Amino acid sequence: MASATGRDGQASGLGLRLELAQGPGGPRVRLHAGPADLAPGLRLATLVAEPVGEDRPRSTAALREGSWRALEARLEVSAEALEGAAQALCGVTIGTWPIGHVSVDAAGESVVLTLAGPRDDGWPALAQIELGVAVEAGEIAVRARRVWATGPLAPSATAVWQAAARGLSRGREGAVRLDGATLRLSPEWLVRRAFRAAGAVPPRTRGLQVARVRGEGRGLRVVLADVAQGTGSEGHAREGMSERTCMKGHVFKDMSDGPEDPLAELRAALRAGDRAAALTALSYAPAPTHPGARRLTRALAQVQAELLRFHDRAGAAAAVRAWLAAAPDDPEAWWRVIVAQARAGEPEGVVRGLAALERVPGPPAVRQRRRVARALVEAEQLGAGGRARAVLEDMSWSGGPAAQAEGWRALAIARAGDPQVAGEQVEAAVSAALDAGVRCERAWCEAAELHARVAAAGRRCGRDVAEAERAASEIVEAALRLAREERLTQLGSVIVGQIGRADRRRVRTELQTRAARSLDAGAMLALAEMVEETGERGRARALRQVAGFLLPGCRVEDENEPEACAASEGSPREAWGAGEEGGEPREAIRGCLRELVTATAGIRAARELTLLDLSEAMRMQAIVEPEVARLRAATGLRLPVRVGRGGPEGGVAIRNEREPAIVVYPAIERQAERERRFRLALAAELVRGGLAIVLDPAGASLHELLAALAWLGEPSQPPTLPGAQTIVRLWQKRGVSPEQFTPELRARLCGQLGSWRTDAASVTRLATLLRGDHCVAAARLAGAFDGALLAIGRDARLPAPVDEASARQVCATDEAQRLFRGAGLFFAAGDEHV
Known about the structure:
Strand content: 5-15%
Structural class: alpha+beta
Number of strands: 20
């Protein structure tokens, strides 16, 4: 075969060329064209034509000007071209439903036309038409094999297809015609148009008929041949070719009844408003498997979600999940998931949904609003202030007063949830939110609710702790400064100003911790001010006394303040003590000893005292008598006073006479009045506690007294110690018997004595604890915790508390710490955690 293509044979854009081939009747000239692009998505793969008449073309000019008759042509139509042709349906209405979007899906031998648009009568609307493409009478015949339509749309599948077919044929009457329910296409005109566009004389194509249509990839290949000529070009026999040829697998069956309509019952139920029937129709609907079926699956899931919404939460959630599986980038589905999580009270799920929604493609303004929505939830629900604040700081996204109010409200919460943000910035955002809320038509930012949300966000990130620590530090510094300047009356207003928005309860806890762990005098003064506001005047006075002890030279308490603790035995007392130390019970022992004060008095009393001169004795009597008189009134005991020579360094002792007496010695004159008051109160409390026999120099030991108490708990086991036997014998003479005590008290007594009498160390420990219990009672009775500390330091032979260091050394002793814990000075009962 020889080529006779000239210089301009390829310049036409159609790839025109002449070829000489040897045939049965001799050499034959053929015109060949292609491959060439006729239009976007439309390609002429090849065209073969023969000259008209007997003359054989001799020059290349015949390529453009000669007379030719087309024998065969092959066209390739891409999916883009099919979809472009289908765009004529945009704006067409099916019933009252306008088509807004058209797409074509072609895969192999299947072509599906998808029509989408707004909701139809409130229901998600989508129509998919499965097309059958065949060759009939030399034309391409297109019919609808199956129509899937959600939403009411039209009453039948035939009506949907006919409306779509009319829209496709409108304006294309020369190439497309509507024959009943069949679209008929004659594509040979495309060849003529392409030749004219290239400036060449088109070949005669009237004899070209569609011989075959085949699906290739996502497009179609159309073969046209001049069937009337019998045989075309060599290798393309057409004899016996069926006049009814189609794509493999799509041979038309009898379609007189119209296309299949799998969703007819669903549409009928939706039009009737029958929710149950619609759900039943959905359950029986076949699963779509054609190209583009994901769109239909999404629409069916949308319909199911609408039907179950507000009726079956779990079923609606499952439908939305199916919706998302079919359309992962559908923002409406993600909003449904987010709303479901919000209704279920799961803020973490809401944030996860908003994060996924933020990744969905969309315009920049839409994506910005999604980021803001996520930041709002993170700030208000999770307290993730750092991430949310970065988005919310830019207020350009908010417009009207309501949006401004919501933005400032969320920003205030976000700032509160970020511990790196200063409290002033949080307050500024709160004020801006409240100001913006005033301008709204409806109440948007209730002040109390906003402050509560801000406080909650602060607690989640630890801001409240940090602010409480800051406020406590500032309050402590102010208290110390005011104490040294003797202006403590201003401390209350200073505390109110420094706390600000900080949690008052946490500030108080921080002050308690500092006072207990660090013996901080400023913390004690501030704590005293705060507990006095709650009515605990005795505790406040004790805290000020300890703070004054730690600040020698600073006057922190009014000397003329009336005694708050001078009350009789039957008077109610403030319950601010922490009680005995946990794990070491001894209340039954104390109770029994207190009941046996009279029975134990006078047992094994000491010999006569070495008396002072009468004048010296009278002087000492005059010193202690006013305080002892108050103690008699408070305890109900006679408490005779004896004056002796020498004596202990503390200047006070006890004699277990028939009326237990307090013995004072000359050393008491050298003591401060507060220490003297405490020592006398301690003596009175020890007498009232039944321990005079143990403290008398000639009395019994604590081990003997405990052995005698054991007889009360278990009379069948008399004591073996001689001293205990003496005590029990005298008790019996004075009418004491175990039956005077309740079985419950005796049982507790046996248990406690059993644990304390195991060895000498346990008895020593009990003696220490009993003294500590009575020190607490004496400090309260005397209203002199500072006097107790002076006595503790003197008895421990520590340096006099003339400066803060020596005073802190006294307060750090075990006995002082036991006093603080036993009195519940820093922590109320049950609150101690240091």
